[in-house]
Amino acid sequence: MVQPLLPLSKVLTAAYDSGVTLFDVTEASGRAEMLLGEVLRSKGWRRSSYVITTRVFWGGQADRSLSRKQVLEGLQGSLQRLQLDYVDVIFAGPRPGPAQTEGPDPTLRLLRLEELVRVMSDVINRGLALYWGTAGGAPGDVMDTFAVARQFNLVAPVCQWAELPPEPRLFRQLGLGAVTWSPLAPGPGLEEEPLPHGRPIGKAMGRRQPLKVEDLQPLAQRLGCSVSQLGIAWSLRAEGVSSVLVGAETPEVLQEQLQALQVLPHLSPATLQELDTLLGGAAPP
Fold first, then answer.
1. Were both Cys, which of 28, 102, 121, 192 would link to 58 (CB 3.0–4.6 Å)?
2. What is the pLDDT of residues 91-108, one digit of tens each?
3. Do 238 and 165 touch, CB atoms closer than 8 A?
4. pTM of the model
5. CB-CB contact of 52 with 84 (8 Å)
């Protein structure tokens, strides 16, 4: 574990020293959770000084669902690998709708949603997580999840792990901030999470067509930045976005990505409109 731990430690240290305090993992990649846990333990940073988010759903091979059993066992496994008493945010996803074997029965779907909200409330009441959010949920599912929480006086989700651009009504009506990633920069290791039908999730969501990169070159040159920096800056300015996830294998790559913050003041309304046309309308391949 020493070999992969050293480069990761350097990247995380560079991120932390630069003011990056949110680190996102998933139970689907237990190795990543173990490495992150080792780094956090070796650094001895104050627990209140960083935010850990993780996602449950993929871990259980026999029960790929959001059942009470799956959520509790998945989170407990994550905490053990992370060597933490709690995570700051636990995301549940993808969409909390009916399994294929359940059919379109609306009553069964609502029961599933209620089970999800109840177990998330239990997780928070136990102190295993501070907040919870949805991941990859269709807007209608997220709205219904929020309604179920309010109906039974349970803990409602506070954020969403979502591709760009996030659904505006989830922010405007529910106040759900989005944890997302740039369409033009390495994101949260999506290729590690296979979809049930075998297609990598990275190819199904969040990946924009590569031809858009060429279209952005003139604009990036005009602003004096790289295309990836421009994509990150645009992501940060999107409505409802709370955090943008980036991926970096070296401290140098990370520092190059963080320079996107210097681009923000130069994004005029006209520039943003141009970027929205080039990026916001881009569809996954």
1. 28
2. 997 644 444 444 557 788
3. yes
4. 0.83
5. yes
